[in-house]
Backbone:
């Protein structure tokens, strides 16, 4: 008998007298009160990420200022002009390792947890480009910010690869002392538009 | 050509819990490290859990989602398999550790690789994957900081979330200085013991491994049946590196990780970070469904692992342990874990959850596993913090019964069984009970005169007794029996009338 059939057989035998019907209480949804975007900013900053707010007109200038002359890579579908940036056309990991920064957009922001989710569409690019460079400049539109985790889950498409980002890379593995900056980008700079 | 790393220690041959615990209690450095670390994480968790008004409802939802998935597991596994295949993944099934390790080794070898980079994964630790790969000439590099510390130190993990919780910064600095150079980029000469400097050394050490690796091995926190999505929850970015850069990704996933739908992730992704690291959300969560053309690994394998899970599934009381999402909150609040640490449990799953999971997965036929259900004071703190409401104390008691039952046919009965038989014989006859009461009253008077141990409130007690009673009295005070039994009092006072 194949391992598959044997395991499924064991599962069925184990549950022979067990009714599969079980009532699952719905996860609670607390209505959000107050300023969603302000909460998002507060929670993102709480992870020691940097947040800059600007208007759509100032966006390109703000991004350039944040980069401060650092070498950068951008996804092919980015709608913001980043002078001097390399447009990703399948760069190798080693090539990305020589680039200081990456500029991407995002799919959704979650206010309650200060989380940004990338779904790696062309304005965000392949997963590797927002991972290997040490500075991630992530542009989020105020209109993309939702209140809670379930709001984001409802929007996101699981068929796409997703990266949920809450602050810069961090570890608490040494004496439970939180340290920012391990393997992922050590600096996360969120540019919030609108 | 990479030299396979020297085998990390294994738990095989560990002594039973009472022996291992006694040794651990004597290690003052260990106790200091553990007390500091568990207090820190307990406080962090309490703070972020208090932020959530409807935490209890969230727990009920999380428990419900996992329980529903388990109760119809065969259906969900078949759905998961179909979804994964549709998304371009290759699905393997492994009955046990050996079969799972062989699959990972075969896929790795098929790509001519002699090394893999690994995301922290309890399932791959459980099956001893690193040792199995080493035997095949494949080096498995742990990339989580704490796992790296454990691997470089030829040590054993002692916590589910923070496997090196038993090490302090000075010890970690020593391990990095001594061992990093043997397996790759050495630690810098001026390495200090500041956590951010140590984390920086790990970043430099592992980066070359991430950039060159062709095969990565991961586990998964959740597997979504209807979409074929795997989820890895992490902090450092080592997970993202492994899940993104190599050409081939092999994920070893316990069959109990399945949830029915994408929406089912909602309560779990809210419960896990707050319970585990005490954060509103962990720095990185990656989800992927099979292969995405042009992005990430172009060959994706998923190994669905049984290895005792169907044994646990068949246990009506113990089944709930399979709801576990490996947050480790129960370890951090456990008064026993806080004092003895994780090694004493003799398994990659330590603490309260380990004390039920190990016997459920493996049975109680060996002495070490059979000792685990007793490694608890049944205080119930673990149940209170469990995000998926596993009633650990009830399962502990049930597993204790399983241990007793497993010895019913013994040719030489245990002291406990003899004591119970003697008690049954005594209690079944009024005259015999009377003799026993007189003897116990005498013992009470003697202890009252000579005992040097007293319980809170002043009642005299016996300290450590010799012989077979030592097993019980070695860690407990035996209260002195009352000098007069109820029946003696009744006779003397005519039922309280005189």
Residues:
């Amino acid at each position: 008998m194949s391992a598959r059939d044997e395991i499924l057989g064991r599962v069925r035998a184990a549950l022979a007298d067990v009714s599969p019907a079980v009532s699952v209480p719905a996860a609670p949804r607390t209505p959000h009160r107050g300023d969603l975007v302000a909460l998002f900013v507060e929670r993102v900053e709480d992870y020691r990420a940097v947040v800059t707010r600007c208007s759509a007109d100032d966006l390109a200038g703000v991004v350039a200022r944040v980069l401060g002359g650092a070498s950068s890579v951008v996804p092919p579908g980015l709608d913001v002009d980043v002078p001097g940036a390399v447009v990703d056309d399948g760069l190798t990991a080693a090539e990305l390792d020589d680039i200081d920064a990456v500029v991407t957009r995002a799919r959704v922001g979650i206010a309650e947890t200060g989380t940004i989710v990338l779904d790696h569409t062309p304005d965000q690019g392949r997963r590797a480009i927002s991972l290997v460079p040490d500075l991630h400049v992530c542009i989020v539109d105020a209109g993309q910010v939702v209140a809670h985790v379930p709001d984001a889950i409802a929007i996101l498409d699981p068929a796409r690869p997703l990266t949920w980002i809450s602050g810069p890379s961090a570890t608490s593995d040494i004496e439970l002392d939180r340290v920012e900056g391990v393997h992922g980008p050590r600096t996360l700079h969120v540019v919030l538009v609108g | 050509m990479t030299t396979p790393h020297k085998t990390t220690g294994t738990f095989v041959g560990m002594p039973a819990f009472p022996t291992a615990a006694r040794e651990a209690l004597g290690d003052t450095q260990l106790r200091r490290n553990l007390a500091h670390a568990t207090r820190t994480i307990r406080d962090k968790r309490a703070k972020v859990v208090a932020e959530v008004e409807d935490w209890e409802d969230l727990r009920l939802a999380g428990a419900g989602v996992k329980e529903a998935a388990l109760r119809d597991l065969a259906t969900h596994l078949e759905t998961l398999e179909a979804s994964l295949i549709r998304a371009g993944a290759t699905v393997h099934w492994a009955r046990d550790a050996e079969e799972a390790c062989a699959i990972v080794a075969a896929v790795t070898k098929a790509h001519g690789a002699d090394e893999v980079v690994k995301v922290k994964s309890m399932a791959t630790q459980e099956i001893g994957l690193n040792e199995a790969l080493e035997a095949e000439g494949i080096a498995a590099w742990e990339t989580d900081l704490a796992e790296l510390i454990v691997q470089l130190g030829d040590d054993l993990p002692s916590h589910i979330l923070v496997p090196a919780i038993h090490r302090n910064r000075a010890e970690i600095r020593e391990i990095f200085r001594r061992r990093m150079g043997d397996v790759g980029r050495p630690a810098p000469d001026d390495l200090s013991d500041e956590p951010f400097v140590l984390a920086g050394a790990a970043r430099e050490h592992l980066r070359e491994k991430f950039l060159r690796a062709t095969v990565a091995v991961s586990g998964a926190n959740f597997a979504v049946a209807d979409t074929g999505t795997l989820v890895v929850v992490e902090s450092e970015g080592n997970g993202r590196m492994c899940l993104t850069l190599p050409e081939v990704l092999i994920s070893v996933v316990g069959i109990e990780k399945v949830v029915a739908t994408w929406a089912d992730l909602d309560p779990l992704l809210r419960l896990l970070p707050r319970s585990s690291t005490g954060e509103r959300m962990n720095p990185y969560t990656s989800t992927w469904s099979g292969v995405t053309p042009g992005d990430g690994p172009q060959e994706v394998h998923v190994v669905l692992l049984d290895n005792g899970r169907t044994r646990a599934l068949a246990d009506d009381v113990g089944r709930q342990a399979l709801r576990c999402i490996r947050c480790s909150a129960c370890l951090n609040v456990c008064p026993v874990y806080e004092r003895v640490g994780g090694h004493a449990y003799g398994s990659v799953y330590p603490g309260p959850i380990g004390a039920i999971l190990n016997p459920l997965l493996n049975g109680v036929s060996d002495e070490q596993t059979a000792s685990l259900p007793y490694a608890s004071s049944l205080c119930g703190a673990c149940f209170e913090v469990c995000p998926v409401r596993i009633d650990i104390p009830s399962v502990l008691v049930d597993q204790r019964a399983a241990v007793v039952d497993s010895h019913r046919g013994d040719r030489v009965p245990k002291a406990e069984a003899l004591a119970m038989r003697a008690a049954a014989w005594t209690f079944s006859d009024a005259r015999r009970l009377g003799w026993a009461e007189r003897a116990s009253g005498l013992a009470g008077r003697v202890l009252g005169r000579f005992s040097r141990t007293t319980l809170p409130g002043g009642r005299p007690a016996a300290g450590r007794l010799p012989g077979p009673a030592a097993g019980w009295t070695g860690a407990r005070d035996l209260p002195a029996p009352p000098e007069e039994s109820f029946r003696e009092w009744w006779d003397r006072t005519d039922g309280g009338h005189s």
